[in-house]
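Chapter summary example.
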Amino acid sequence: MSKELIKASQYRTSKSHMLAQEDLVLSAEQNKELDELYSGILEGVQKGKPIFAKVVRVEANNVVVDINYKSDGVIDRIEFSDFEFKRLKAGDEIEVLVDELESADGSVILSYEKAKALRAWDEIIKLFEEGKPVEGAVTHKVKGGLSVDIGIPAFLPGSQIDLQRVTDFDQYVGQTVTANIIKVNKKRGNVIISRRKFMHEQRADSRKKILEKLNVGETIQGIVKNITNYGAFIDIGGVDGLLHITDMTWGRIAHPSELLRLGETITVKVLSFDKDNEKISLGLKQLTGNPWSQLAATITVGSKIKGSISSITDYGLFVEVEKGVEGLVHISEISWTDRISNLADKYKVGQEIEALVVSLDKDNRRMSLSVKQLEKNPWDAIKEQFNIGDKVKGIISNITDFGIFVQLLPGVDGLVHISDLSWTEHIDHPADVYKKGDSIEAVILSIDKDNKKISLGVKQLADDPWKLIEEQYPAGSLVEGEVSKTTNFGAFIKLPSGIEGLVHISELSDENVEKVEDILKVGEKRQFRVINVNKDDRKLGLSLRLDAKAPRESFKKTPKEGEVAKPTAPRRQQPVVAAPQREETLVQQQSKQKSQFQLALEEHAARGGAKDEDKE
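The structure predicted for these 616 residues follows.
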């Protein structure tokens, strides 16, 4: 939009002194001389007509110009943009419009802005109709875009500044840009231009020329325009080609940014070209020979090689054997015995290591390496040195909630499962009984070389006390024991042999007992009567009834599959269903044995069912 010019006549008044009429009368000779003086000058300088003027000097608030008139012209500073005003100097020729031939102080008032707009509108409309671009200087940033001086202020929207999204508009201020005119409204004084459209058309022309000359196998230069996870787009003169990550180097990289930088100029080779779809595939590694085809003859399967670690991943180490040739040491090929969770704790990039070539595929550029196979597999010696049933000694290397690990040889551990720690003790956590670093003796229960597992047992060092339970504690005999634990359904009694028996709440008294703690307390020693024994299910029933009455319930040996145990007493007897026969090894049976506490819970549940049957 044009600026409003404040004229001197709006705020200044002048007073003229009236001269006597006789003073204004000129002689014929004077009139002739005056006509000759102004002849040709007044014809060229007319109000409202554009003329060319030469800059005499540039002042702080004005520009004084010579228009070949009786007096110099003055142009207000506001008529110029900051960009134009800074470039003005004495001697420059500019086009101006005569606003007033003579002001109150005798000066000619000129307008640079009106002359420029008058000339610009004609030129702008002509260029718009012909579809040609316009050139202008970016003067300043405005809301949503830039203001460009193309003779009149034109608006360049932010979305039309470049082919790519622009966030920093300030970088364009002061630059001269070329753009297409996309909208003109002379009545409102609005012009909208698009640099993006102009650049797109220019690229289309360049693309057409490039595509006509491009050939597969040609080596060309380009500029890195964009970088993605899978490659980089290279501008090769208005046309973008894709340089895939697999075509950047014969070696291995995790991301294209490891090799390329935005704006970098690189030389690439045209690998393929689809003219119809304008798709171009480029290569960088193809500029050099394939190092895999030139691999040293000494590098074969089974050979030892030395290399430098080029990168470390979660699954292994990449080792550069030769320039552009890398092999992978999988994490499973690092050590026979060490459990490595983080390779970066043990290895560093650039570190030199020795490895064995396990497999080699030159065509697919793959090489598998192994560090552990440089040494003898310690598990080969395990089978030779140890046998099932051997007693061994070792140091506790680790304790978990499911058992303890015992080191038998450097890097070779055996596991004592929590169920193999004791025949009779109920252990909540192995750490309650053992400490890391303690020396321990155990029996080898099984050896699995293929899966690198050794099972150990501590309780197997002694005989199973439940084997002689029926002879040692026959039904009806009296025994002395200590209360080890109380529950809401009874109390556990530890006998001298270490076996725990259960006194059900119904066997504490002839009267109804609501709380076990009212009769028995933990640590208390009492005498009990054995009322039932089941060696197979590892159950020992006790009673505080010391008289020789028939037991209220008796457990028999587990019947065969499908059979139901018959009660020995009609009162409160529940059916006992036999567990299905299992074809398991002794070690498997021992590892699956239930604790006395679990069995007691099942017994209590069964008792409840029997009571319900009695009521019915």
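To summarize the output: The radius of gyration is 52 Å.
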